[in-house]
Amino acid sequence: MAKKSVGTIQTGSKRLTKAVKMVRSAKSGSYTFVEKIMNPEDVNDFLKSK
After folding, report:
1. Torsion sign across C-alpha atoms 17, 46, 36, 26
2. Which of 16, 17, 48, 49 is in Cβ range 3.0-4.6 Å of 9 for a Cys bridge?
3. How far apart are CA 33 and CA 18, in angstroms?
4. How many domains is the chain built from?
């Protein structure tokens, strides 16, 4: 499964990270990308979750 932290975004006093994870679809078996912008501390939990 592909996992990657794409970039760091700074808006004012907040520091955010965009994480992209490749997830396999249960119905068709194809892969889709899930993108989420979050705090840098939460990235590892997001990438470890299924």
Report:
1. positive
2. 16
3. 12
4. 1
Residue 1 has pLDDT above 90, yes or no: no
pLDDT band at 10 (very low <50, low <70, confident <90, very high): low
Q: What is the Cα Rg of the chain in Å? A: 12
The whole-number average pLDDT for the span 31-37 is: 92
Can you give the residue range of the structural domain that contains 15?
3-48
Mean pLDDT of 27-38: 92
